[in-house]
């Protein structure tokens, strides 16, 4: 929060000209006017207000402290043994430099700066959101975790915390935090091995309606963060699965956005829309020609009774041979559009289907069908990055591992971080 404001007054009167025209005319025509004419706030966009706030000078944190205008954070104010004091808006944090150092990046400087005693000097963190910094400290102090494995073996993910920390850890070069984010993103956007057939349990969302919307909005939400800050390269190994989940949405939602409460959440980068739509077509083709290729191959290769080389050729449940069962299955798939209208190429036979196959196929045919089905899913998985115009898995995983936040090859070198606008950190 800026404690400074213009000492000049403001006035505004309606006229037939637009607010921007009035501001321009009065600012240039009435050069000797003693008052600065500013349009009403309702005519200004949020970005205009943000730029004006950023241009306003900040009152030194030490001066605010002298006047008693800073309040300690209720959670992260260690008055007894804290040795670094940081200020965001009018809130001050007294924390431990060892803890800050563990997050890396700009906070590695905390030890050197805090080692110099400067009575009454307090460090201000500029352009850092209060809530996000509290999230960061909670993670540093092990008050929260980004992801975990539950006793039932299912992954658990604190989604809101993860997406909140992506920007601050990139911007402030907090590589240890970034590694934790990457580990958490693996639970929902895996890059290693065939993905689990279930989504992680999402923590931190208590509203049932929002939980229901989450499964339609989460790929758009993270892609918009990447687009806003150009983080595609830093998390490139997760892009195939992010695009895959986005491709599961209806075409209209991909193009025009998804209803998220009282607003529409839209993809902000046109390139993402084009990539997802093209990949969606590739996934639909792959579902038919790769993931379920085994069905058509068996129908064209075997018959009229057996569905494998070593088929027992005995009637199974329902009094039909294995081949006849697969033939009927193909007919149902074609009627329902099961193979041609869905882009979920990474989803094969679920548990219910396997139980059904166990009843209607002999043991040998069942084993062969399951093996072929798994092979098709693995082939679709291996080809997934290419469906969205990306390099193979091994290459993008290697690129992500080398994408250090401060030394990334695609960034211009920064001689001194401009976000370290605070002068000293109090010892």
Describe the structure.
The chain is of the alpha/beta class. The chain has three domains: 1-57, no CATH class; 59-204 and 413-427, Potassium Channel Kv1.1, Chain A (2-Layer Sandwich); 235-404, no CATH class. Helices cover 47% and strands 8% of the residues. It has 17 helices and nine strands. It has helices at residues 19-29, 46-55, 61-66, 97-102, 110-114, 130-140, 159-171, 175-185, 208-229, 239-247, 251-256, 270-291, 293-301, 322-336, 351-360, 363-387, 393-402; strands spanning 71-77, 84-88, 91-95, 123-124, 147-149, 155-157, 201-202, 258-260, 263-265. The strands form three sheets. A four-stranded mixed β-sheet has the order 1-3-2-4. Strand 5 and strand 6 (155-157) form a beta hairpin. Helix 12 (270-291) runs antiparallel to helix 16. The longest helix is centred in the C-terminal third of the chain and has 25 residues, at 363-387. This is BTB domain-containing protein. Residues 29-38 have a biased composition (Basic and acidic residues). Residues 1-21 have a biased composition (Low complexity).
């Amino acid at each position: 929060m800026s404690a400074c404001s213009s000492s000049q007054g403001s006035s505004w009167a309606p006229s037939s000209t637009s607010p921007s025209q009035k501001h321009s005319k009065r600012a240039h025509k009435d050069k000797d006017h003693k008052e600065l004419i500013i349009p009403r706030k309702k005519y200004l966009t949020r970005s205009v207000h943000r730029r004006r706030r950023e241009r306003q000078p900040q009152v030194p944190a030490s001066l605010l402290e002298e006047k008693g205008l800073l309040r300690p954070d209720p959670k992260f104010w260690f008055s007894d043994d804290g040795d670094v004091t940081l200020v965001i808006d009018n809130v001050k944090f007294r924390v431990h430099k060892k803890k800050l150092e563990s997050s890396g990046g700009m906070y590695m400087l905390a030890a050197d700066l805090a080692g110099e005693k400067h009575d009454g000097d307090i460090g201000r963190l500029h352009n850092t959101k209060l809530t996000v910094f509290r999230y960061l400290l909670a993670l540093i102090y092990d008050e929260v975790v980004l992801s975990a494995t539950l006793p039932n073996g299912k992954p658990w993910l604190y989604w809101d915390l993860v997406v909140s920390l992506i920007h601050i850890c990139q911007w402030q070069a907090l590589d240890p935090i970034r590694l934790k984010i990457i580990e958490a993103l693996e639970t929902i956007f895996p890059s290693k091995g065939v993905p689990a057939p279930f989504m992680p349990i999402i923590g931190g969302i208590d509203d049932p309606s929002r939980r229901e919307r989450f499964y339609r909005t989460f790929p758009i939400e993270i892609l918009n963060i990447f687009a806003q800050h150009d983080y595609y390269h830093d998390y490139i190994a997760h892009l195939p699965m992010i695009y895959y989940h986005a491709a599961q949405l209806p075409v209209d939602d991909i193009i025009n956005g998804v209803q998220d409460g009282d607003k529409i959440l839209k993809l902000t980068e046109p390139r993402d829309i084009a990539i997802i739509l093209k990949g969606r077509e590739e996934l639909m083709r792959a579902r038919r020609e790769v993931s379920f290729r085994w069905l058509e191959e068996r129908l064209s290769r075997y018959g009229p009774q057996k569905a494998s080389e070593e088929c027992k050729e005995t009637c199974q449940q329902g009094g039909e041979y294995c081949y006849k069962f697969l033939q009927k299955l193909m007919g149902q798939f074609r009627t329902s559009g099961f193979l041609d209208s869905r882009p979920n190429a990474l989803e094969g036979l679920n548990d219910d289907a396997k139980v059904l196959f166990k009843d209607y196929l002999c043991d040998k045919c069942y084993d062969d069908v399951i093996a072929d089905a798994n092979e098709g899913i693995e082939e679709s998985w291996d080809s997934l990055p290419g469906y969205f115009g990306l390099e193979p898995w091994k290459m993008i995983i290697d690129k992500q591992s080398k994408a250090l936040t401060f030394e990334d090859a695609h960034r211009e070198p920064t001689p001194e971080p401009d976000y370290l606008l605070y002068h000293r950190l109090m010892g």
